[in-house]
Design goal:
Oligomer: homodimer
Number of strands of chain A: 18
Largest sheet of chain A: 7 strands, antiparallel
CATH architecture of the largest domain in chain A: 2-Layer Sandwich
Strand order of the largest sheet of chain A: 15-12-14-13-17-18-16
Structural class of chain A: alpha+beta
Helix content of chain A: 25-40%
Number of helices of chain A: 15
CATH class of the largest domain in chain A: Alpha Beta
Strand content of chain A: 15-25%
Number of domains of chain A: 4
Chain lengths: 462, 462
């Protein structure tokens, strides 16, 4: 528990209504999109200005109070859970779009801007910001930077880090640091912006973000391909990537998702299919037409049972809704959903899918999966119940096997969700020990009192 | 001077023929593409393996000997000049292309691979690696990573850092650290790859690089636009960027370059023109056709006196040769060429060009410039002579004014060349002082004895 004096100091900084202490409020901020972890904070503060963030951090730093930065809490690796208690610093109310510049093709936003609100504002001006985590309806741009978020569009367009030009970051001691600017090229010193990107709130609190924009592609086309065999679908993705065409998105959903989505909202998905690829191509109308034809040809040649091109935007939207709903369907399927986030080389996708089948058979756990197949980034999930200790332990071991199978194929522990709490016990297997040591030392440089999101990424004392 | 014992230890590590000590050899490695600085090393070593690099660094670290990593020495900010003497560690002989994977769309190369050799190997397989510094005929990929190089293609495709997936880096103490891998997405811990990218050889020696590739665009088209007025050309660039089309390249050359190129190799360039834009669009044949038409229309509407679309690949190659030759023409134009590398927001290009005119008038120096207009990244040059102290001091002051004019417009000190020696006296004006302090502390973490490229980026004792 924090002293009453500190609570009243926080109230003085951010205003009474911005400081939450009731049990109900604290519970709301005790968990995030991850289902295996929760921890109560002592207090939640919702600042509205950079100056307030600076004063909150100064106070916390002087008193050694843990601070967990948080956007919308859509994180799925436990990064925004206040595992050490203390202050949850939620930037959701710093939600102004400060500038959209159509000629410079840049925008500056506050961290609490919801991605979808930003996308809508950009669309009005014919502009496009590609990184599109499936949580786009809720997630905030500050969280996107802290997690270096990605999504379906990243096959063609890259991830959040590829779009960052400038940051304002408040350091642990309250110093407001400005990095980068509004130019698309900048070679002034080390890439410090990249250091904060994906640092999961452990190095600073992001208070302003400048991103690079693109013109909205004038045309898009969505296709779906139905497969009897998941491995064949995986191979089809490799075939497309090797063919010279670059789809904007290549998403994979399995039979579990197809059935669940169809149960929730019947939309005529092929419930017997073992795998569905949902693809999009974008660009000029002529290019889209040609690319779509090429993709359809490859899909058929690669063994798709059925290939459909969405006849209009409504039909396309329906397929993408199925993909988004898949995410919800998976996370609502059990008390505890352990979702992996491995990425494998794109030419190893079919092999990895085969390995998942073997692991499922051996462990007895059904392994559901969907994901960003075009990036080799799959989200295999195991449905379990954390309250059943024996089963949960077996689920954890099975998850470890999945991760090790990915690593053996040249893959990585996390493609886009980050390490947080969920994957930190695997970090030593996934990363050079000296690199982990360097991370810790950099953390020590930027946050010597270890107040910023302590207990994340690496295991303590490890 | 290094002790004879150390020289023989280096010979034992890398072989006798890989250790250069003659005055002629040392002179060759005493300068780089920058014309204002030079310093003799004590010895040059050309290792061929990571293990040798590791042993060289271990030896240097234990004996406190400065090590300046070097690729081809095409650097234009002094980054590869051994300003403290000691060892030049040249990676030019580590020049194997280790893997090109067409399905995963990745390649792994050693640092000494020349960019053009890499491009040729990729082209055979229909693959494309976009970052294209104008020094591509000589520069090496290790240098490209250390400098986070960019070039004309970066308007559409981004810079070196956008393509890096994995690095092998030898740390100052000789430890061989592996970062990242061959997946296009990776969210395992901090972005340490980005920390080494653009660190100008001050944090480690890069010994292996894995990059993301793209399929080679099936079609390209080159256009040139002739302008009477440089500001109008600058505005035309802004107009194109705001129009929704994304050219692959938009390069700017001024009358000085047009005349010099025409003198060297007559190719029918318009010698009376005050500015020439050279543009390229790429993609599917249909998209290229449509984009080229849109660009031509905008150029005409924006006040171009003449617009030409290259009728074939030969004519296109001629225009791009003129652009490359421009670089050489500028650097050969005087004893000392001070080349700025500022970048301004793309909507401030015309305004910046106007300011350059004013600075030229006031200072009496002719200011030549060319550059990557689509990125707002210009290279204004002043022709001077470092041996004439009074004139050189005035040139330096004029350069400072150019930099400050860019900063006032929201621009940055360096768009792509880095800080090195050339721009370090401006660093304090260009970067948050706390950010500079963080860079120094990170340097302290990774290179506690300060052996790696000491004396670069920030001024010592400053």
């Amino acid at each position: 528990m924090l002293e009453t004096k500190l609570i009243s100091q926080l109230q003085k900084i951010a205003g009474k209504e911005a400081v939450l202490t009731s049990k109900e409020d604290l519970t709301t901020y005790s968990y995030d999109g991850t289902t295996t972890w929760a921890h109560m904070p002592d207090v939640v503060v919702l600042p509205t200005t950079t100056e307030q963030v600076s004063q909150i951090l100064k106070l916390a730093n002087e008193n050694g109070i843990p601070v967990t930065p948080r956007g919308a809490g859509t994180n799925v690796s436990g990064g925004s859970i206040p595992i050490k208690g203390g202050i949850v610093l939620c930037t959701a109310k710093m939600n102004k779009i400060l500038d959209i510049n159509k000629t410079n093709l840049t925008a500056t936003i506050e961290p609490g801007v919801v991605l979808q609100d930003f996308n809508m504002a950009l669309a009005k001006q014919g502009l496009f910001y590609p990184p599109d985590p499936v949580s786009f309806f809720g997630c905030t741009l500050g969280g996107n930077v802290a997690e270096n978020s990605a999504g379906p569009y990243c096959v063609k367009y890259g991830v959040t880090k590829h779009y960052l030009l400038g940051l304002e970051v408040v350091l642990a001691n309250g110093y407001v640091m400005k990095l980068g600017g509004v130019t698309v090229k900048n070679r002034t010193g080390y890439e410090l912006i990249m250091l904060f990107t994906g640092s999961e709130g452990t190095l600073g609190v992001i208070t302003k973000i400048t991103v690079k924009l693109l013109p909205m592609p004038p045309a898009r086309k969505t296709m779906i391909a139905v497969f009897d065999d998941m491995e064949v679908a995986g191979q089809a993705v490799s075939d497309i990537m090797a063919s010279g065409v670059v789809p904007a998105k290549i998403e994979f959903v399995d039979n579990f998702v197809i059935r669940r989505v169809e149960e929730m909202t019947p939309m005529g998905l092929p419930v017997e299919a073992n795998a569905l690829l949902i693809l999009e191509t974008d660009g000029s109308p002529a290019a889209v037409e040609a690319d779509a034809q090429q993709i359809v040809d490859i899909l058929k040649k690669s063994g798709a049972k059925d290939v459909k091109v969405a006849k209009d935007a409504n039909e396309a939207a329906m397929y993408w809704k199925a993909r988004s709903a898949g995410f919800a369907a998976v996370f609502g399927a059990a008390h505890t959903v352990m979702a992996e986030d491995v990425a494998v080389p794109r030419d190893k996708l079919a092999e990895f899918i085969r390995r998942l089948g073997e692991i499922s058979k051996k462990s007895g756990f059904f392994i559901q999966f969907l994901g960003h197949a075009g990036d080799g980034n799959l989200h295999p999930s195991i449905f379990t119940d954390i309250r059943d200790k024996e089963q949960f332990a077996r689920a954890q071991e099975t998850m470890a096997e999945i991760f090790r199978a990915a690593m053996e194929l040249g893959g990585v522990l996390s493609g886009e969700h980050g390490i947080g709490l969920e994957k930190q016990r695997f970090l030593k297997e996934a990363m050079d020990p000296v690199a982990i040591d360097i991370m810790k030392k950099i953390k020590g440089v930027l946050d010597p009192n270890n107040i910023l999101n302590p207990g994340k990424i690496w295991e303590e004392g490890a």
